Amino acid sequence: MKRASIYTGSHRLLLCLGPGGVGKTTTASALGMRAALEGRAVDVMTIDPAPRLLDALHLDASIAQPQEVSLESLAVSGGGRLRALKLDPKHTFDAVVNRYAPSRAMAQGILDNRIYRGISNALAGVADYMAMEKLLELYDDPGTSLIVLDTPPAREALDFLGAPERLLDLLNSRATALLGGGLKFSDLAARAVLSAFDRVTGLHLLSDVHAFVRSFEGMYQGFAQRAQRAREILAGPECLVLVITTPEELRVEETAAFIRSLDRAGINIDGLVVNRVAPPMPSRPAKAGASALQKKLERNWRDFAALKRRESAALRILSGMLPAGAMMLAAADLGHEPRSLRDLAEIAGSIDIAKPRRH
């Protein structure tokens, strides 16, 4: 089973998975920034439709290509670089068609087809598959040494990982063949219904579906080859699978269930990144008197000590979930939502081996 440190150059992909609401996008960005500050050429990609990543990095959400993140304000000189992008499934699907269609005329025919426009904008799973296509594009860029992929929340992550197979199943399904002209005598009723629908509505749906399916002839093999390559990358030694979570009781339970789901799917994790870990315990306030302020300081210290005990217990439980050889890292809680590159850099600098304490 593959194992490597996040900070070595032996891998090319960090796959960030985890429950929603744990700061996964922020943590993925911080991991990417940490690698960039240490000299690597990093691309961070999110397929989360919310623009949190680009907001944190102060980038334009309307641009579908990787955008350079300036690190000059952080006064570092590690020689690395950081780019970020939010997936635009429609733009990526159009690019795939233009790249792999046998001719420009065929590509334009697909792009102009009403069925294609509906599928590329709305079909469930297209965003996931297009993330895989974009991943392959970034992976083949010789100027990129590390890709950090921020995936959907845990409940959708397994669907995301199975996206290539699902889209190929759809394109090769009996329903598509049925609509595309593979109708047998026993299916004439279906053709008659569609033809009648066309006559009543004037939409020419049947002819559009025929044209759509015919236009993809010769491209299925390319889809299958790229799907297989995406699977090989995700299962290969250059990919580290990280689960992002927080030390809250509910999140610990969700993480345990998610790791079990990954295990059933044959996906081994290489590490946990525990986000929003509270700072170390301060010294206990000196008992110099019984003033209201002194009592408040003592009460706050006790509350924080109780929080740290719960946090340490959660970290021990999370540590017990790890397969042999996997790592557990912790990222500091800023006490507020990150609003600047400097905030992200602070989180990035705090990421370190988690050491659960016993009380």
Describe the structure.
This protein has 359 residues and is an alpha/beta fold. The protein has a domain at 13-106 and 125-158 and 240-353: Rossmann fold (3-Layer(aba) Sandwich), CATH 3.40.50. It has helices at residues 24-37, 52-57, 89-100, 104-112, 114-122, 126-139, 154-161, 163-171, 174-179, 188-201, 205-215, 220-235, 249-264, 292-321, 341-350; strands at residues 13-17, 41-46, 67-69, 81-86, 146-150, 239-245, 271-277, 327-332, 352-353. A 9-stranded mixed beta sheet has the order 3-4-2-5-1-6-7-8-9, sandwiched between helices.
Helix count equals: 15
Give average pLDDT, whole number. Answer: 78
Q: What distance lies between the first and last C-alpha atoms, to the nearest angstrom?
A: 34 Å
CATH architecture title of the domain at 13-106 and 125-158 and 240-353: 3-Layer(aba) Sandwich
What portion of residues is helical? 40-55%
CATH topology (fold) name of the domain at 13-106 and 125-158 and 240-353: Rossmann fold
Q: Element order, helices and strands?
A: EHEHEEHHHHEHHHHHHEHEHEHE
How is the main sheet built?
A: 9 strands, mixed
* Strand element count: 9
Largest sheet strand order: 3-4-2-5-1-6-7-8-9
State the name of the first-level CATH class of the domain at 13-106 and 125-158 and 240-353. Answer: Alpha Beta
Q: Quickly give the structural class.
A: alpha/beta
Anisotropy-based shape: elongated
Low-confidence stretches: 178-188
